[in-house]
Design goal:
By secondary structure, the chain is mainly alpha-helical. About 70% of the residues lie in helices and about 0% in strands. Strands 1-2 form a two-stranded antiparallel ribbon. A hairpin with a 5-residue loop joins strand 1 and strand 2. Helix 22 crosses helix 24 and helix 23 packs across helix 24. The chain is globular, with a radius of gyration of 23 Å.
Length: about 575
């Protein structure tokens, strides 16, 4: 039976019309007789700091956060907030040290960075790899999880129709270029935050009512902490001999204090600083605008766990105490990723439409941003360089648009029957693990390329290969080959009865040994590589407003960790 009332549909249609109309207005207002590639892919530097910040969050927060991170909140608890809160620090690092390097050297795509700093071989390898990753991991997972969540909320078996509708909605926005994406993302973020907070408020009042405390969201939050204090520990303790399988599964996902010395930094710095999907928003702006936009995104990241993780903990407590039994196991099959949808079904009429709009906003903004990045890399780093070197601006823009459509069709084809097994892996974990195989090598290559003048192209190629191979070895074979416990790691039995090393620890060691290999190979080259970037202190000087935003972010973050340590 359909779970939406007429008022919900009206609210959702209003949201759709507002976004589509505003996007079309932006397109007409910014439209030129001939749109250049800089217009289409980079918005020609016309995005303001608040538009950059909003667009970063809208592109980042998608179905894998709403559905996947809420599912992790159900299974693990507040410790999963580390992904969001450490991201705020990572964004400070990117704003202060990474973005100046990109802007000074007029870098517009990540493969261009690799060609400028290393060579064409490295750039082409990574361009092809990123295209595969963005299409087959990111686009497909966003489409699958998004369609699944909306299907559960609507309460009808329309998964494939919803999936295609989401893709079409994203295409409408994406084909207008980065200007349209950037400014419509401002609306998307407003809807996302308001709708997300409404869902969190409902989840907490449901807990409050369940424990006989009335409709009091604050009382509901206190009841969560009292009922399940283990779900409010930021640092998980290492499992002892008598630890339950449930606790071991949590630790495998977030291995205590070690994540702050290993994978968490690699995940965040690679994602926010070496990722076309994210950095593209800032690469067309001046340094001050780009920095303030990135730091604004960092401030918004601090509140994201309230929206995407807290409903999952609320669902856990309700389920643990006899509630949400049917909602967490539709069709008789339990899945922690159903937590967010389970809460949404109890929203009152009207608010349900708002939350549907918020969820759709997050999904569509991420699809649009990802599709634009795919188009940018293919058009500028593959098509123009290797297929049609003489292509003019008009041809390149149309190639970009065709690429967007093709990428979306491919993602739909692979999502149609869940060929990659996203549904069984757990959405958020699926993305983290698959990207985690290459993050150590890519991040090492970017980090040394930016800040060590001796790094060579040969070392970069070796870094890509070494990082990937070591990630595979640590994740899949190390526990079997070298034993279950060494000075490098401790492996634990997972739910399948197989010894597993926490993947963030695997990522940390893969990164460390990749750095060692790259440094050794680079020492065989010249003291200063001719392709090394020229850096100077003036690049990293901060404006007073930038310093204020950094201090505010760090103070809030410190307070959160002190409270929930």
């Amino acid at each position: 039976m359909n779970k939406l009332a007429n008022i919900d549909y009206i609210i959702f249609v209003i949201y759709f019309l507002v976004v589509a109309s505003y996007g079309y207005w932006i397109y007409l207002r910014k439209k030129k007789a001939t749109m250049s590639t800089k217009d289409f892919f980079l918005a020609e530097g016309s995005l303001t700091w608040w538009a950059i910040g909003a667009s970063l969050i809208a592109s980042n927060i998608s179905a894998e956060q709403f559905i996947g991170m809420s599912g992790n909140g159900f299974s693990v608890g507040i410790a999963v907030s580390a992904y969001e809160w450490i991201a705020a620090v990572a964004l400070i690092i990117v704003a202060v040290w990474f973005i100046p390097v990109y802007l000074k050297n007029k870098i517009y795509t990540m493969p261009q960075f690799l060609k400028t700093r290393y060579n064409e071989t490295v750039a082409l390898i990574m361009a092809v790899f990123w295209l595969f990753l963005y299409v087959f991991v990111n686009l497909t997972s966003i489409l699958f999880l998004g369609a699944l969540a909306i299907n559960n909320l609507v309460g009808a078996e329309h998964f494939h129709i919803i999936m295609v509708a989401l893709a079409i909605f994203a295409l409408v926005i994406t084909l207008g270029g980065m200007k349209v994406i950037g400014y419509t993302d401002v609306i998307q973020v407003i809807v996302l935050i308001i709708g997300g907070l409404a869902t969190t408020w409902l989840a907490l009042t449901m807990v409050s009512e369940h424990f006989g405390l009335g409709k009091d969201a604050l009382a509901g939050f206190n009841a969560l902490m009292k009922d399940s204090p283990d779900h409010f520990e930021m640092i998980l303790k290492k499992p002892g001999p008598g630890a339950s399988q449930e606790y071991i599964n949590r630790y495998l996902l977030l291995p205590g204090i070690t994540i702050y010395f290993a994978g968490q930094w690699i995940i965040n710095l690679n994602y926010w600083g070496c990722n076309q999907y994210i950095t593209q928003r800032a690469l067309g702006a001046d340094l001050k605008t780009a920095r303030n936009g990135i730091l604004f995104a960092g401030l918004l990241k601090l509140m994201m766990p309230v929206i995407v993780m807290l409903p999952g903990i609320a669902a856990y407590v309700l389920y643990k105490n006899g509630g949400l039994q049917g909602e967490m196991a539709p069709g008789g099959q339990f899945n922690a990723d159903n937590a967010y949808s389970a809460v949404l079904t109890f929203l009152p009429n009207g608010l349900k439409g708002l939350s549907l709009a918020a969820l759709t906003a997050a999904i569509v903004a991420s699809l649009a941003g990802k599709a634009n990045s795919i188009s940018t890399i293919f058009t500028l780093d593959v098509y123009k360089k290797y297929i049609n070197k003489e292509a003019d601006e008009k041809k390149l823009v149309w190639t970009g648009r065709i690429t967007i459509v093709v990428a979306m069709l491919v993602a739909i084809a692979f999502t149609w029957n869940d060929l990659l097994g996203i549904g069984g892996a757990g959405g958020f974990t699926f993305i983290q693990k698959y990207t985690g195989f290459i993050s150590p090598g890519v991040f090492a290559m970017f980090l040394l390329g930016m800040f060590w003048k001796r790094t060579t192209g040969a070392a970069a190629v070796a870094g890509i290969v070494t990082g990937f191979l070591l990630s595979v070895v640590f994740n899949n074979y190390a526990a079997e080959w070298f034993g279950h416990e060494t000075w490098l790691y401790t492996a634990f039995l997972n739910s399948k009865g197989v010894y597993e090393i926490p993947f963030q620890i695997c990522m940390g060691w893969a990164f460390f040994f990749t750095l060692v290999v790259m440094v050794i190979l680079s020492l065989a080259g010249p003291a200063i590589n001719p392709k090394a970037f020229q850096l100077d202190k003036a690049m990293f000087k901060l404006a007073p407003s930038t310093i204020v935003m950094i201090v505010i972010t760090l103070l809030i973050l410190s307070a959160l960790y002190i409270r929930f340590w």
